[in-house]
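Forum > Structural Biology > Help requests

Title: Can anyone predict the 3D structure of Coenzyme PQQ synthesis protein B?

Hi all, first post here. I have the sequence for Coenzyme PQQ synthesis protein B but no way to get a structure on my laptop. I'd be grateful if someone could post the structure tokens.
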Amino acid sequence: MRIHILGSAAGGGFPQWNCNCRQCDGVRRGTLRARPRTQSSIFVAPDGGADGVLFNASPDLLQQIKANPVLQPARGQRDTAIAAVMLVDGQVDHATGLLMLRERGLPLPLWCTDPVAEDLTQGLPLLRVLGHFCGVERHGVEPDGRAFTMPGVPGLQFRAIALASKAAPYSPHRDAPVPGDNVGVVIEDTRRGRSAFYAPGLGEITPPLFDLMCSADAVLVDGTFWTDDEMIRLGLSKKTARDIGHLPQSGPGGMLEWLDRLPARTRRLLIHVNNTNPILDEDSPERAELARRGVEVCEDGQTVEP
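Reply #1:
Sure, ran it for you. Structure tokens for Coenzyme PQQ synthesis protein B below:
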């Protein structure tokens, strides 16, 4: 299978439209060695197949489609390679791009958990809005690890696992999480026996979850913040990374400690990187530390083959 990184930044992208932090200002001025990034999303297609699954529909989706010709195979007057969409949560930066697909001639095949469907019907009623356009063919996802397949993408199998993170601010369970608010997904290539684990929003790694990560050939996991107090130190928030559902990379129990323990064969990639995270600066000591540990930072336009 091929995993196309459409967007690798957290909400707001990089540079963020209203941010003049050292990194956003530096990338605009060309004084920082860093690459602009759109908001987090991937497209996964089986080997030899044109059609695949869009994981998360970012607000930057139209820009991402234009930048990635694989999403527009142009086999007919109206065409797309997006056979289905799966959402790992109901956050704005992962769901509002659904509206950009409203011209689809048939109902949009959408895979998500019940809590996410509730959030996107009530708190942020995107699914109700789409009902006035193409409509939605919604498929339920159980966050219990059971395997399922999707029509139109032969050779791929999926498993969703409930994660500890945060539901969207407009969710009724924002401060009282329920299983399915956030999921990680195991994507398996059943023909080649290869797999990847995708979790752009991950607040805690439990032993069972870590065992699952160890079984994957590649992990694409939460790269939002470098330190737990990153936003507080910069005066941008009063909340820590963990408060808003993201495990920081550094510090005791941080993401890097877990990634260091993965089998040597496992490819390690960080995705959903916030504009404040120093790993975006390719000359930073934090980026050098990632290189030393064998951890990659996802880039827009990159293709990953587990």
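The longest strand covers residues 156-162. Residues 2-304 form a domain with the Metallo-beta-lactamase; Chain A fold (CATH 3.60.15.10).
Shout if anything looks off.
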